[in-house]
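Meet the record:
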Amino acid sequence: MIRNISKLAEVHGGRPARVVLSALNYALEQVDPAGLVKSSVKVKGDSIAVKGIKGEKIKLKDFDKVYVVGAGKACARMADSLCVILGKKLTLGAITVPIGEKNKVKREFRSVLEVTEGTHPVPNSSGLRGAEKIIKVLDTASSNDLVFMLISGGGSALLPLPAPGLKLSDKQRITNKLLFSGATIREVNTVRKHVSGIKGGQLLRYSNYARVVSLILSDVIDDDLSSIASGPTSPDPSTFADALKTLRKYNLVDPKDPAIRHIINGSRGLVRDTPKRGDPVFNRVHNILIGNNELACRAAVRFLRRSHISTEYLGSRFDGEAKEYGSFLARLAVDLKAQSRSRFAVVLGGETTVTIRGTAGTGGRNQEAGLSCAIQQPLQILAATMGTDGIDGSSDAAGSLVSSATRQIANRKKIDLRLHLDRHDSYPALKAANSLIFTGRTGTNVNDIAIISSVD
């Protein structure tokens, strides 16, 4: 939840700002991973009903053991909720979560559910150990067992099992290069899957054909299951050739690099590719989407409408450069203000990127979009941009709330907003202008939300 609502509301116009920030809070509540799991999985007697598996109840008596594995920014909350639901029916489990999230799993469950903390977005050795623990759990499963797999954004970095012949340092190096290249998350994940021994459906190669139910919280545009956490339980439509194409696009092909050489060999048919649709490993798998950006955005719309504000939802497919997205938000605000005689708001979602040119400062895509919007923003308009995971880029802020007050404070303090924008250094400028949103880690992750609202 947003920690500094009162201060932001005071700076940016009082009640109108408070309503926008409260709408964001409500949106976060509706994509709380624990609540989503609770509403998706019901246990009654000896049966489990999972929303999304139509016309079929899972009979626990048909299985010898029940396991839970998973990884991602929302995994701790998801696992804690599922442990409550399963109770003593849970045999064993292992999950990997971001650093600082372990305590979101109740201590009483940790005797059967091992929780490992890893780093994001670049994997570390702890994440590798977590992936190995997950595989160890799966290795004990058989075709007579039931496995719940919990997947959310961030799982790509938190499941860093290198492909045979590669080291963790090889994955770290190529991940860093891609993150600073401006590659989209889909492109990054295409490469990740092809230097991994676990992503792109490959995790199922360790499941011994157990019955698998994957509960998935989406952090990608279009909710492509093969892209969320790099699709560890989903058929992978991408190939080694696609991964090589991405590397060429961003001028990252270096045959001396072991990870890149592995991809080159794979493109030549020398390495087995990730499993595709129709592969037998998917015969007993149910991939269930339990939450996404649209769910959060529509919740914000409901809140704003209940606050007597005429509100429209513009979709959850917005991407591209954060700076250009901010300019788009400013132009949109101008157009809407010209057309409306009453209080209005629009809600939109997605995920942008920041292409670093030169040395980067501190900030993230939501702050960069907010700063870009503030520079061009008309009077009497509020614009909020926030990452639902609560951590935006290289900062401790979740995003920003900008208004005419942002420029007024910046002018008074002689802060050159455009210079900060050009340097990808949005955080100090917005902090000085009292325009940052702080939530801390929210425990969920469904991309970003933006709200534009008039103040009269």
Observations:
- Residues 32-161+196-238+274-291 form a domain with the Rossmann fold fold (CATH 3.40.50.10180).
